[in-house]
Design brief:
16 helices, single chain, Growth Hormone, Chain: A
Length: 426
């Protein structure tokens, strides 16, 4: 078969599909527990090592950048050697990074901490790739649901992980390590457990489809944006992630600066995370039932409404009691989490459905790796720039910037309504 001959899709049966989804979801549960446990103390460890609060956000930024940098190499590895090899390789890189951070904590080295955080980004990259793995050889009307279940599996991990800090400190004490190194010990254990699940549970070692030379990022982008559906999916991922990260990253800073307790801030972030993941199966079902662009439209609307609520919080702190601002932020971050979920689920499903069709040089894994790279860079840029925006125009202004970022996506969605709705796989 030549590259110019359309491949006949071969779909896996229902039992095999459910089994693979369960394996991917289980591994993602352990991955998210590990990464969340470490992430919860990453900033505290940076502050403890450097003595400067201003540097506490750099480990998180390094993780986001690490995920972006590893996205394309892991996708290409999946195309050559199969999903199992790619996913386990990313997790082993993340486990190595976690071990590096333990060394950084033991020797109080900030540079080693940042290096470890970059490597831990591999765990995040694996989580992103796992959602695409759930759609491999799956019939179109099941893709959204399968993908969303793997994303949903992150919910328990994201909630449980930060609550293991105290237990981690106990583990660190028994090992003779600093308290803040403890959660990273748990991270190593959780990531290795995820590796074992994938090694035992995922069948098949071969590549995805016929072996081919990976397309460059430039060629892949050109193929994706040449089709309106691909462009919408790509913009939805990048925009949804940028808006969410930009506003969320500075919400804790804003709340703390206006007198909110750390307990309340933790509760708000937990509610936000619940919004990001808990409703994933619903958005997956809606994508399969009504089409990806309609769910992306819903996600964009939710992001805009959530940003309006956080904007009101900024004005409330200037004109009203802080308690009112706390309520606006709580509801705003919850709705932003829901909007992010809708955009990520529907956008990823749209891209997995063959956004590159028409260019035989580009494979599904090329599209997936490139889209995750852009999504990660968008989030990292938004997170790094949000502090400057907050300092210049305040929290309300930051929210307005978030709304403005949605304008290109809104335009694409409005234009797409002139054509038949995009149904995944149709």
């Amino acid at each position: 078969m030549t590259d110019s001959t359309p491949a006949v899709p071969v779909f896996i049966g229902g039992e095999a599909r459910r089994r693979r989804t369960a394996v991917l979801g289980s591994s993602q549960l352990f991955t998210s527990v590990g990464v969340a446990a470490g992430l919860a103390v990453g900033g505290l460890l940076a502050e403890d090592i450097t003595g400067r609060t201003s540097l506490s956000g750099l480990p998180t930024t390094a993780m986001v950048l690490g995920a972006a940098v590893l996205a394309v190499p892991l996708a290409r590895l999946a195309a050559r050697a199969g999903r199992r090899v790619a996913l386990t390789t990313g997790l082993l890189i993340a486990a190595t990074g976690s071990g590096t951070i333990i060394v950084a904590a033991a020797y109080s080295s900030f540079a080693v901490l940042l290096l470890g955080a970059l490597l831990v980004g591999g765990g995040t990259a694996v989580g992103l790739q796992a959602r695409y793995a759930a759609t491999d050889s799956v019939e179109p009307h099941h893709r959204g649901r399968n993908l969303s279940i793997v994303v949903w599996a992150s919910t328990a991990g994201a909630v449980l992980g930060p609550n293991l800090i105290e237990f981690g400190a106990t583990v660190a004490d028994r090992l003779g390590l600093p308290d803040l190194a403890g959660p990273w010990v748990l991270t190593v254990a959780a990531l290795l457990a995820a590796v074992a699940i994938l090694r035992l549970g995922l069948r098949g070692r071969g590549p995805i489809g016929a072996p081919r030379v990976p397309a460059s990022i430039r060629v892949t982008l050109a193929a994706v944006v040449s089709r309106r559906e691909g462009l919408i999916g790509l913009v939805a991922l990048a925009t949804g992630h940028a808006v969410m990260v930009g506003i969320m990253a500075m919400s804790a800073v804003h709340l703390h600066g206006h007198g909110s307790s750390l307990t309340f801030i933790g509760l708000v972030i937990s509610i936000h995370v619940a919004g990001m993941y808990a409703m994933s199966p619903v958005f997956g079902w809606a994508t399969d039932r009504w089409g990806a662009t309609r769910v992306i439209s819903l996600g964009a609307a939710l992001l805009a409404v959530g940003a309006l609520a956080t904007m009101m919080a900024g004005f409330a702190d200037d004109r009203m009691a802080h308690s009112a601002a706390q309520q606006w932020i709580t509801w705003g971050l919850l709705v932003i989490g829901l909007g992010w979920s809708a955009c990520i689920i529907a956008g990823s499903t749209l891209l997995s459905a063959g956004a590159h069709l028409g260019d035989a040089r580009v494979s599904n894994t090329d599209v997936q790796g490139t889209s995750d790279l852009l999504m990660g860079l968008a989030g990292a840029t938004a997170g790094a720039g949000s502090g400057l925006v907050l300092a210049l125009v305040g929290y309300a202004g930051l929210s307005i910037v978030g709304i403005c970022l949605l304008i290109p996506l809104g335009y694409l969605l409005i234009v797409s309504r002139r054509r038949p709705a995009v149904v995944v796989g149709g």
